[in-house]
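Moderator note: this is an archived Q&A kept for reference. The question asked for a predicted structure of one protein chain; the sequence and the answer are reproduced below.
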Amino acid sequence: MAGAKDENGVRLYEQNWYAVAMSDEVAAGTAIGADYLDGRVVVWRGEDGVVRVMSAWCAHLGADLSVGQVVGNEIRCAFHHWHYGDDGVCTRIPAGDKIPPKARVTRLPAVERWGLVWAFNGAEPLYAPPSFTDFAEGDLRYRTVPVAEFPVEH
């Protein structure tokens, strides 16, 4: 994926809203993985119907949370069953051990618009997600379809 680089050659990305999944790919109680900038995220929808996005790597041993299970409104790692809430903080360790204070993964703000799940690459959005001025989403006709990935600057 193309992107600006800093003086050490590390890729940088603007804080922006990025489409990470199609809404209909994420049914209630399911999780999927998605490539996101130079990393990976887990996208899941809890029992409450709200979509959530966070770093895909479990804080315990780095397993991919997208192969885990949705339990209520939390994501559970498939390997050692660590649970994470929608804020990215570990809420439960089945062994009954004390949860380490740094047991968390990065949570990304997420919204749904036009059949897409959008994630903002920052702690809090700097501005509203993409929209059309003077039109309510319900007044628009649109179709969301997958397309090939094109390596272009954002």
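Archived answer notes: The mean pLDDT is 87.
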